[in-house]
């Protein structure tokens, strides 16, 4: 096993020094002093990469199974909780150990452009913007996909095929998949397929924000507008993080406002007639 890890580290260095495939695929220099980073000890590199590095015939059955197993890590929370920041930190930690990574986000999120995953404070990293995750391997190409060790997924609630993709990437292909997304919508109902991958996950991190109205921990997202569709892309102009009490108070205010506006509209319509 020790020789296997040494071989993996050495070939990771060789791979990272090669010319990059294309911008959204990252291969950063191997740093021996960071080899004990939280994920590095958990598993070697991806199944395809490990196989090409001589980890086949010489391994015991248990070692071979460990090499080929992937991981799924889920980061959830309300808006403005720092989910994207946490995602970028974790994939960067993986890249710092010499692993190759790729980032994906939904093409529905065009607030900061389509070519980058961007935090609310402006930190960014190049990514693939896709309508569904199933198209990722075809977009990247089979050879490049096999070299990817870590896949980061931002705004995961917008992908209907999230569960299938994570199963295949981690269970079949041996990838580390790190997922960030909203666990609930503005009504506190399940949002997309993020909760469906909780049973598959190696770890789940629930982040909180700070309530804009009282400063306490915020667990929920309050929509400021009267729009009722579930998917409504927006930032601080549309949403705010709130604690439980201010979520409930806010819903009362929003509902009262809606009733008043409906009455005003019906009055105007009657006057016109």
UniProtKB/TrEMBL annotation:
**Which is an annotated Pfam family here?**
TK
According to its UniProt record, which reaction does this protein catalyse?
A: thymidine + ATP = dTMP + ADP + H(+)
The domain of life is: Eukaryota
Q: Which organism is it from?
A: Zizania palustris
Ordered alphabetically, the record's keywords are: ATP-binding, DNA synthesis, Kinase, Metal-binding, Nucleotide-binding, Transferase, Zinc
Q: What InterPro entries is this protein classified in?
A: Thymidine_kinase, Thymidine_kinase_CS
Question: What is the protein named?
Answer: Thymidine kinase
GO biological process annotation, one example:
response to stress
Query: What's its EC?
Result: 2.7.1.21
| Classification via PROSITE patterns | TK_CELLULAR_TYPE
